[in-house]
Design a protein that fits this description.
alpha/beta; 6-stranded mixed sheet; 28 helices; 19 strands; binds (S)-3-Hydroxyhexanoyl-CoA
Length: 708
């Protein structure tokens, strides 16, 4: 018997234990060993029933995601799925009651194995789910057929399209689990299995039809889900394929439904969408691995925090800490400013409560973790102080000098600056080893990205602590280097440059925004700026101008400055790139902006023309990839995949496109390079291919090795 699966008999029950750390994924050998053990139990006179359980922290986290890249053709994929379906049918046909005992997670293929058992029991903390959609695929081992048979189409549709696992209580109520075990899981599972054996009971999920219910109602539920996905999953394919497979389970028998699932799975697993999402799965885990900061680097426990600055960012950061259960001091210069900041925080929580996503009690507890203050009293007790004052170097330097004085020598001092030099701030604190950038993205309590900016002297334990803290705050921490704008905003300057220039050349604000939302972004560049504030960009440009710099080389469009001068700061002033009716966030195109763009085009001698959507996407994405390559070759990002993680989590770059660097790989770097050269010929020498782009393109390689 393989080491991956252990077999023993306890109290006349065969216990089959999967032991494939870290998460008992169904890698090669595991499914085979499970079947072998179940077969052996069937013939073992010492066993009356069988329990399938996982060793370590979890039941089974699903198929080994690495194996999908071995699938090259539809036929090959269908053949593999067919083999696994047959294996599960064999388990389901076991001659003795077969009980899955679940702790940790039963996800994807893990839940599919559990559903092929006759019964499922779990500890109260267990979670079960079909998260395949997050990998651009659908359940491929009968999940779309067995799940509706256990819990009905409505919950099956929800689980297979949003991919979120459900907890044991809900799974029990819905019929996915048969019992929640209060004491020891294995003891409980053995007792459960023994009782089933005594009653001579075995229940095959594939034989159940009752929960599937009325055919017309099932089809209507599928139609309703498709309509909902039309709004929330635009551009993605897997959620729709999951609906189709479940619908097949409603309208066809088990075998025909399974066959349809295999075909749909094959189409999905071979898609670019799935490659992109699998790339991100590993990228988001790789990102925490810093070559010179090993896993065992000591880190500090963050139990108390302080934030300086109760504005939009400071308030959002305070909420992120409070949400994570960390008490936080929130300081600003006077009571009136603090009161304003706190009122916004309170309103945000009230809105969450009104949507039913938080209880009033939880709101009260969370708010109580935020202590407003106008002094530095109490800063001597905090483990981290985050500076979130106005984006002004002198002000930030003064703040860092204060923090260096009022906090303990080991307190981490973090700056939320989006552009300024961390080393300059570090120097003012008097203890640069403790200083790091913690660049949150607005709204800081919502957006997942945390850029962890490593200064020249930032100590390794501060980096290790920042990465752990990011997880604690429910963020994805990405360690980046200290350059202007770091990774996210440095690249964004190129994204915006092309957007402004395309506008002057003749595209409209809404055409450019729509081209990007069609690509899958939640909002286009102009809509995004109307949310962030046109005044913010203006201030950064002023700061740069004072030192004779620009954010991105090439022509500097005067259109955003003209809007600023007109008092059009975006949503907050009722007008920016769009106009807004009072109290509404609906973007209404405003011909005034096109007039300004046309005037600026004349001033720069640009002849206006019709611009295609393809050109908009190609120009903007090429600018991003080329600058991303520069960021990489200059060492400000560790890996190309880190840049993808930054863009997906910071700006909502569509996951099914894998991030800007992965997207460039799918376009082909030879094409990306050809475009840079074409733009140089058309627009000027400010377009220069990065040496890394040239090298990779000439070698026929991509930024990533997994973007076949
Ligand atoms: C599927 O099942 C399709 C089926 O329908 C069958 C079709 C035929 N494979 O996340 P962590 C690695 S599709 C390979 O940091 P946590 C992970 O990369 C699958 N590797 O731990 C990491 O490696 P490293 C559906 C996997 O405690 C390490 O394990 N299932 C897999 O924060 C620890 O992971 C899913 O999508 C895997 N399936 O969270 C579930 N899972 O240390 C995916 C993990 O080298 N997994 N690894 O960086 C998860 O959601 C989380 O890992 C889990 C634990 C919640 C289980």
């Amino acid at each position: 018997m393989s080491q991956l699966v252990r077999y023993e008999v306890r109290d006349r029950v065969a216990v089959v234990t999967i032991d494939n750390p870290p998460v008992n994924a169904l890698s090669g050998g595991v499914p085979e060993a499970i079947s072998e053990a179940v077969e052996r139990a069937g013939q073992d006179p010492a066993a009356n029933a069988i329990v399938l359980i996982g060793a370590g922290t979890t039941f089974i986290a699903g198929a080994d995601i690495n194996i999908f890249k071995e699938l090259r053709t539809r036929e090959q994929s269908i053949e593999r799925s067919s083999a696994i379906h047959a294996r599960l049918t064999m388990l389901e046909d076991a001659s003795k009651p077969l009980v899955a005992a679940i702790h940790g997670h039963a996800l994807g293929g893990g839940l599919e194995f559990a559903m092929a058992c006759h019964y499922r029991v779990a500890v109260a903390t267990a979670r079960v789910g079909q998260p395949e959609v997050h990998l651009g695929i659908i359940p491929g081992a009968g999940g779309t057929q067995r799940l509706p048979r256990l819990c009905g189409p409505a919950l099956a549709l929800e689980m297979c399209t949003d991919g979120r696992p459900v907890d044991a209580t809900r799974a029990r109520e819905a019929g996915i689990l048969d019992a929640v075990i209060a004491g020891d899981l294995l003891d409980g599972a053995i007792a459960f299995a023994t009782a089933r054996a005594a009653a001579n009971e075995r229940r095959r999920t594939r034989d159940l039809r009752e929960k599937i219910g009325d055919r017309a109602a099932g089809i209507a539920a599928c139609d309703a889900m498709r309509a909902a996905l039309g709004k929330t999953a635009r551009g993605a394919r897997a959620p729709f394929a999951a609906v189709e497979a479940i619908e097949a389970g409603i309208t066809l028998d088990f075998d025909a439904g399974s066959r349809r699932e295999m075909e749909l799975f094959a189409d999905c697993v071979l898609s670019t969408e799935s490659k992109a999402m699998r790339h991100l799965f590993f990228a988001e885990r790789e990102v925490a691995k810093i070559p010179d900061v090993p896993k065992d680097t000591p880190s500090r426990k963050i139990t108390r925090a302080a934030i300086v600055g109760a504005g939009t960012m400071g308030g959002g950061i305070a909420m992120a800490y409070a949400n994570a259960g960390i008490p936080v001091l929130l300081k600003d210069v006077d009571q009136a400013t603090l009161d304003r900041g706190l009122a916004i925080i309170r309103r945000n929580y009230e809105s969450t409560v009104s949507k039913g996503k938080m209880t009033p009690e939880a709101m009260a507890t969370t708010l109580a973790r935020i202590t407003p203050t106008t002094s530095y009293d109490g800063f001597g007790d905090v483990d981290i102080a985050v500076e979130a004052v106005f984006e002004h170097m002198d002000l930030k330097k003064t703040t860092f000098a204060d923090l260096g004085r009022v906090t303990r020598p080991d307190t981490i001092l973090a700056s939320n600056t989006s552009t300024l030099d961390i080393d300059e701030l570090a120097a003012s604190s008097g203890r640069p080893a403790q200083v790091v950038g913690h660049h949150f993205f607005s709204p800081a309590n919502v957006m997942k990205l945390l850029e962890i900016v490593r200064g020249h002297d930032t100590s390794k334990d501060v980096i290790a602590t920042s990465l752990k803290l990011a997880k604690q705050l429910n963020k994805v921490g990405v360690v980046v280097g200290n350059c202007f704008g770091f990774v996210a905003n440095r690249m964004l300057a190129y994204y915006m440059r092309e957007s402004y220039l395309l506008l002057e050349e003749g595209a409209s604000v809404s055409q450019i925004d729509n081209a990007l939302t069609d690509l899958g972004l939640p909002v286009g560049p102009f809509g995004m700026q109307d949310i962030a504030g046109i005044d913010v960009g203006w201030r950064i440009r002023q700061h740069l101008k004072s030192s004779g710099k620009t954010r991105a080389e090439g022509p500097q469009s005067a259109v955003p400055d003209r809007l600023y001068e007109m008092g059009r700061y975006g949503q907050k002033t009722g007008a920016g790139w769009y106009r807004y009716e009072s109290g509404s966030r609906t973007r209404i195109p405003d011909p005034i902006v096109d007039d300004v763009a046309a005037e600026e085009a004349v001033r720069r001698g640009v002849t206006r023309r019709a611009v295609s959507n393809e050109e908009i996407i190609a120009r903007i994405m090429t600018a991003l990839a080329n600058e991303g390559a520069r960021v990489l070759e200059e060492g400000y990002a560790i890996r190309a995949s880190d840049i993808d993680v930054v863009y997906v989590n910071g700006f909502g770059f569509p996951r099914h496109r894998g991030g800007p660097m992965f997207y460039a790989d799918t376009v082909g770097l030879a094409t990306v390079l050809a475009r840079v050269n074409e733009y140089r010929a058309r627009f000027g020498d400010y377009w220069q291919p990065s040496p890394m782009l040239k090298k990779l393109a000439s070698e026929g390689r991509g930024f990533h090795s997994d973007a076949e």
